[in-house]
Specification:
Strand content of chain A: 25-35%
CATH architecture of chain B: Orthogonal Bundle
Shape of chain B: globular
Radius of gyration of chain B: 20 Å
Largest interface: A-B, 28 and 22 residues
Mean pLDDT of chain A: 93
Number of strands of chain B: 2
Helix content of chain A: 25-40%
Shape of chain A: globular
Order of helices and strands of chain A: EEEHEEHEHHHHHEHEHEEHH
Radius of gyration of chain A: 17 Å
Order of helices and strands of chain B: HHHHHEEHHHHHHH
Helix content of chain B: over 70%
Distance between the termini of chain A: 35 Å
Number of helices of chain A: 11
Oligomer: heterodimer
Largest sheet of chain B: 2 strands, antiparallel
CATH class of chain B: Mainly Alpha
């Protein structure tokens, strides 16, 4: 469904990705793991169009996305929850959610999608008129995921959704991602909780200094000796 | 004897007159300032050519009256869409190229645009002071000991209506929400599928439509000449800083404060002093409350 084809990406002169190729199939959860600055976020930003690759292509359902502007990719159904939530802090929860339904395709159904988001995260319904900037970290993350769901994604990309959250909230977010996937949304997940990410995902890719060094079924990677040493602290 | 009893009939009349003058002037300043603060708040660009669009609005009203005997309030109906289009065109031809450039590049661009427009006006229409006197500018209304002319009242009423309409648009429509979201986080807005270039185009066009409309509204009250915009835009900067950069409600309140300072200062010390007073106010705000009197601290870097 989503394919990256030999992507090279740079920030100025610094190379962030070198010949990264990976594929995400319809209905899958794929986890991207790796150390800080390994290129995980950059990979998501290349797919969403915020970073233009110097070489290589991104294909979505067979279509080359290279000439498609970032905001148009959202209309195609590629939606990213950015790292650090990036809510609109001086707007209310419900305003943030409604903004998520900006693409024409999603705007028509926004009343029913809001109800769906409230059913996933009942706390957002209670806080609907509160300014997004005043929510707790966990609530902000729920609001950010809810806002992305408002766009009716076909592929949902999550960048470090559990960063800085208490363990009980981390589990809650992971359960929700599983539920969203069960509703038919393909998920590409960047996570630093490697063990939990690998338990949740169907497949995983390991990035190291901008290169894809390992990929395979998540369950098998959980037992991989190299990965255990590098990321699981065993 | 208490001080209230010592206030004679004449003093009360003066106070009432000063109050009315403040409100009338403040309404018009608000319309000039909201366009400026809107463009700044959402695009992070200080439009130094703002006053020149006001001047063009004044000329549009002058020529429509001079050549076709059209009343400025009638001209306003055509001027709003006209200046909206002028704003769109200016954005596409001039502003788009510097929207993501450094502040220096943006300042040079809008200052350059300002000088260019002033000089085009000078070449085309000469430096003559021109005045238009439609019938309503000589109708004096007297209420409870205060006097003001009809043009002032109508200009005030229309300016306030336009300002409130813009405020409602920003607060309650989807497009308004999209504009505020873009101001608060450009990249996050892009990730919501928002075409930020379109948002900037719309923002600039609305800002210019506001100031163009203000130019038409003040044309029966002030002389029209190529640098006529300067006197207004200088105080619009004071208003915008006073109200908190990018804050629309702040801009409305700031307009009233600047108008009060101008009216009171002119009455007590003479008209020549009025600019001294509001620039002292300006400097004081910059020193003591750089986020503005009403601005949320930190909001000036994040937008509305």
């Amino acid at each position: 469904m989503l394919r990256l084809d030999a992507i090279d990406a740079f920030y100025g002169d610094v190379q962030a990705l070198a010949a990264v190729s990976l594929e995400v199939g319809q209905g899958e959860i794929v986890a991207l793991v790796g150390a800080n600055a390994a290129g995980k976020s950059t990979t998501l930003r290349v797919v969403s169009g915020l970073v233009a690759p110097r070489r290589g292509r991104v294909l979505f359902g067979g279509e080359d996305l290279t000439p498609v502007a970032a905001h148009r990719r959202v209309e195609r159904g590629i939606v990213q929850v950015p790292e650090g939530r990036r809510l609109f802090p001086f707007m209310s929860v419900v305003e943030n959610l409604l903004l998520g339904a900006h693409p024409a395709r999603a705007r028509a159904e926004r009343a029913s999608t809001v109800e769906y988001v409230y059913s996933l995260f009942p706390v957002l319904a209670d806080r609907r008129t509160q300014l997004a900037g005043s929510l707790s970290g966990g609530e902000q993350q729920m609001c950010a995921i809810g806002r992305a769901l408002m766009a009716r994604p076909r592929v949902l990309m999550l960048d470090e959704p559990t960063l800085g959250l208490a363990p009980v909230l981390v589990s809650r977010i992971f359960e929700t991602v599983r539920a969203i996937n069960a509703d038919g949304v393909t998920v590409l997940l960047v996570e630093q909780n490697v063990r939990q990410a690998l338990t949740l995902a169907h497949r995983a890719c390991v990035l190291e200094s901008g290169k894809l060094v390992l990929q395979g079924r998540a369950r098998e990677l959980l037992g991989d000796e190299r990965l255990k040493r590098a990321y699981l602290g065993l | 004897m208490d001080s209230a009893r010592r206030l004679g009939r004449a003093q009360i009349d003066v106070l009432a007159q000063l109050g009315v003058s403040t409100v009338l002037l403040g309404g018009i300043y608000a319309l000039i300032a909201v366009g400026l603060t809107l463009i700044f708040g959402i695009m992070r660009v200080v439009n130094f050519a703002h006053g020149e669009f006001l001047m063009l609005g004044m000329y549009a009203a002058f020529w429509a009256y001079d050549l076709a005997a059209l009343d400025p309030y009638l001209v306003l109906l055509g001027a709003i869409p006209l200046f909206f289009a002028v704003g769109l065109l200016t954005y596409v031809l001039v502003m788009r190229g510097v929207i993501h450039a450094s502040h220096n590049a943006q300042i040079f661009t809008t200052v350059g645009l300002s000088i260019a427009l002033q000089n085009v006006a000078l070449v085309v229409w000469t430096g003559d002071f021109r005045t238009l006197r439609p019938w309503h500018s000589s109708v004096v209304i007297r209420v409870l000991g205060t006097a003001f002319n009809l043009s002032q009242v109508v200009a005030f009423a229309i300016a306030v209506a336009l300002t409130l309409a813009l405020f409602a648009f920003m607060k309650w429509t989807h497009s308004g929400r999209v504009m505020r979201a873009t101001a608060q986080d450009h990249d996050a807005a892009t990730l919501m599928g928002i075409d930020t270039d379109r948002v900037y185009r719309l923002t600039f066009a609305i800002g210019i439509a506001c100031v163009g409309a203000a130019g038409v509204l003040v044309s029966p009250l002030y002389a029209v000449y190529p640098t006529a915009g300067l006197q207004f835009v200088l105080l619009a900067y004071v208003v915008v800083v006073l109200g908190g950069l990018g804050d629309m409600v702040g801009a409305m309140l700031g307009s009233l404060i600047v108008a009060a300072v101008e009216v009171l200062g002119s009455y007590v010390f003479g008209v020549a002093w009025k600019e001294v007073f509001y620039f002292v106010l300006f400097i004081a705000v910059l020193v003591f409350r750089p986020a503005g009197l009403f601005g949320q601290r930190g909001a000036e870097t994040l937008g509305v």
